[in-house]
Design a protein that fits this description.
Elements (H helix, E strand, L loop, with lengths): L2 H12 L9 E9 L4 E5 L12 H11 L5 E10 L14 H10 L5 E7 L2 E6 H4 L12
Parallel strand pairs: 3-4
Antiparallel strand pairs: 1-2, 1-3, 4-5
């Protein structure tokens, strides 16, 4: 896996974010087992609740293209007008962690990045231990 490429794809995806209400823009780049990269950005809505995070936008794009297995996701986010060098780490929200849990294994890598040289890598198990998944619905 080329982490630098994945982070750069997330940085690029963030440019398309639509976040007029929070002014907090997020880009995500998801690496499938097919080696394809799927990107997403947050898209907000005047009704607020229909808004979607960048991570889920990327994941649902991948699912819609029939990818079902994933290796890693890179995430960058911050205030729309903060310079790239001032970005803080943007961790995925609880809803996105739950959605990852549906499709990704415990060792799925979550890369939270400020830029291609400054990032941390976590596993899904670290960010969502004891999750609730499809296996819990089998008798
Ligand atoms: N957001 C994301 O897209 N991903 C995250 O990991 C955290 C939050 C979005 C949702 C909303 O559009 C804005 O950032 C502020 O919460």
């Amino acid at each position: 896996m080329n982490i630098e490429n994945l982070i750069n794809a997330a940085i690029e995806a963030r440019k398309a974010a639509y976040a007029p209400y929070s002014n907090f823009t997020v880009g995500a780049a998801l690496l499938g087992k097919s080696e394809k990269i799927y990107t997403g950005c947050n898209v907000e809505n005047a009704g607020f609740t229909p808004s979607i995070c960048g991570e889920r936008a990327a994941l649902y794009t991948a699912i819609a293209q029939s990818e079902r297995s994933f290796i890693a996701i890179a995430i960058v986010g911050g205030s729309e007008d903060s310079a790239e060098k001032d970005l803080d780490f943007c961790f995925p929200c609880g809803v996105c962690r739950q959605v990852f849990y549906e499709f990704c294994q415990a060792d799925f890598q979550i890369i939270v990045a400020k830029n291609k040289d400054d990032y941390s890598v976590y596993t899904l198990k670290e960010l969502l231990p004891h999750g609730f998944g499809p296996e819990n619905l089998q008798k």
